[in-house]
Request: fold
Amino acid sequence: MFLVFLANGQRLPSISTLRGKPFPNDHLDLFFNAVSNASIVLATFIRAAEGAGLGCCPISAIRDHAAFVSDLLRLPERVIPLAGMCVGWPSEHGHISPRLGLEATVHVDRYNDRDAIADIDAYDRRRNEGRPPWKQRGVARFGEAAFYGWSEDKARQYAEPLRVDFGAFVRKKGFKLD
Reply:
């Protein structure tokens, strides 16, 4: 099954209208609230589906085609596709992808990235031990890297413009990002 998780910024203004109340919050926070709520639902869905034995794969690339998906699903103003999700019964035993460690992502009392480079390097090496990348991106532009870890892959991925029209799409859907 393929699901689409939506950021719904229409609900709160509609409720205000329904109850005859003003809605002076038509600004960036409405967008953040819609995206945060959809993200919570997505994460909760994954936990519940995996608890039932289903496999899940979030698809952020749906935002590469946000206008097409919005038209396909006939999404109203202030409702945008946040992520897709493939869900099904796994045909083989899955694995948990390694993630950047808590030491690099959790900050106590105040933000501190003093060891960010060392943390990212350690993650690159740990991730490559169990699951080395199968293909290097942008070899014609950047050359072949002797060691190709997660951070090199992300740096190459984001060296190219991605979703440059997404902000315009979000504004066209009625979100004010001021």
